[in-house]
């Protein structure tokens, strides 16, 4: 990779004061616009920073409804309650990711005047995973698990993951990752697109070892994430962290051989 690009990636990783799990991000984003409700079917509503054409609003609503069904089928449980989708064209300064969510609202970076593109479908599915976790899971999830699971499920729809394409196969910046320094606790300081894929590899490592049903059963636990993890899998997340670093090293070696 060219040195200029490395410098840019490092800069982006450190520049943003906001990450998608920050408190206060929602209130700040809502305050930035005068939101218009552009479509609503009673359980899913679409908001934009201005009026948009009815067919554009309708296609966003249809997309959100189908993403709700997809994510519910991954977890084997319906996504209940009302959901508001906010089509965003500017986030607070320093927010570098493409969206964020809570239990009732999701915010996606897009052009609200235009019909959704395939990347928007992937992004909405990713964000709805966060909604699902926020609604149904009592334990507080660390960044690596929250973003890792959302990115894993988003990628699985596109053929990545356990039985498909490598989650790191086309990731920019992987060769500059020093795996000795790689920790779950500092993953949020990496550039979002790189850190999300790295986090998804951690989730993939857990899914390969324990399967989906056990991973999903984690959501029924209470207390700290570490205790819930130990109760569910009989070991601490630290052991997964070691296997995860190995998985990243294997992909780096595969690249240098190409
Ligand atoms: Zn996310």
Cα shape: globular
Spell out the helices and strands N to C.
HHEEHEEEHHHHHH
> In the CATH hierarchy, what is the superfamily of the largest domain?
Neutral Protease Domain 2
Q: What's the number of structural domains?
A: 2
Radius of gyration: 18 Å
Q: Helix segment count?
A: 9
Q: Briefly note the structural class of the backbone.
A: alpha/beta
Largest sheet at a glance?
Answer: 5 strands, mixed
Kindly state the number of beta strands: 5
Poorly predicted ranges: 1-15
Indicate the CATH topology of the largest domain. Neutral Protease, domain 2
Helical content (DSSP H or I, runs of 4+): 40-55%
Write the layout of secondary structure elements.
Blueprint: H1 3-15, H2 25-31, E1 36-40, E2 44-48, H3 54-75, E3 83-88, E4 99-101, E5 105-109, H4 118-136, H5 143-156, H6 192-210, H7 212-217, H8 225-233, H9 237-257
Parallel strand pairs: 2-3, 3-5
Antiparallel strand pairs: 1-2, 4-5
Helix pairs in contact: 3-4, 4-5, 5-6, 6-9
This protein binds zinc ion.
Characterization of this structure:
The chain is α/β, with parallel strands linked by helices. The chain folds into 2 domains: 15-136, Neutral Protease Domain 2 (Neutral Protease, domain 2, Orthogonal Bundle); 143-257, no CATH class. The chain contains 9 helices and 5 strands; from the N terminus they run ααββαβββαααααα. Strands 1-2-3-5-4 form a 5-stranded mixed beta sheet. The radius of gyration is 18 Å and the shape is globular. The relative contact order is 0.12. The structure holds zinc ion. Zinc ion binds at residues 20, 126, 130, 147, 150.
